[in-house]
Design a protein that fits this description.
Elements: H1 3-15, E1 23-27, E2 32-36, E3 43-45, E4 53-56, H2 59-67, H3 72-77, E5 82-85, H4 87-91
Parallel strand pairs: 1-4
Antiparallel strand pairs: 1-2, 2-3, 4-5
C-alpha cells in the first residue's frame, strides 16, 4: 500500500467531516497516518507524532474496515485492531472512513 495514496484518501474524507477536536494516529507498523483535528479542519499526514488515540492494525485490515468487509467491534474483540488512548476519539473515526 502506498502511504501517500492512503493519506490522500483519508484527507479527502476528512475534508467533508467535522474536526475531531483531538489527534488520532493509525499505526500500520512501519507506516503511520496522523490526523490532527485540533484546528478548524482535520489535517492528515504521514507523520509519526504522539496522538490522543492510536489505532493499530495491518494495512489489509484497514482496507477491509474501509470497505465494510469486517465488523469494527469484532475486529477489536479478536485483536485485529488495537486501540490505545482516548476511546472517545476512536469512536469519531466513523465519519472519516
Amino acid at each position: 500500500m502506498e502511504i501517500q495514496s492512503l493519506v490522500d484518501g483519508i484527507q479527502k474524507r476528512a475534508d467533508g467531516a467535522n474536526a475531531l477536536g483531538s489527534t488520532l494516529k493509525f499505526d500500520f507498523g512501519n507506516e503511520k497516518v496522523f490526523i490532527d483535528g485540533t484546528g478548524e479542519k482535520n489535517v492528515v499526514s504521514a507523520e509519526d507524532k504522539d496522538a490522543d488515540c492510536t489505532i493499530s492494525m495491518t494495512p489489509e485490515n484497514f482496507m477491509k474496515l474501509v470497505q465494510g468487509d469486517i465488523n469494527p467491534m469484532m475486529a477489536v474483540m479478536s485483536g485485529k485492531i488495537k486501540i490505545s488512548g482516548d476511546m472517545g476519539v476512536a469512536m469519531k473515526i466513523q465519519s472519516l472512513i
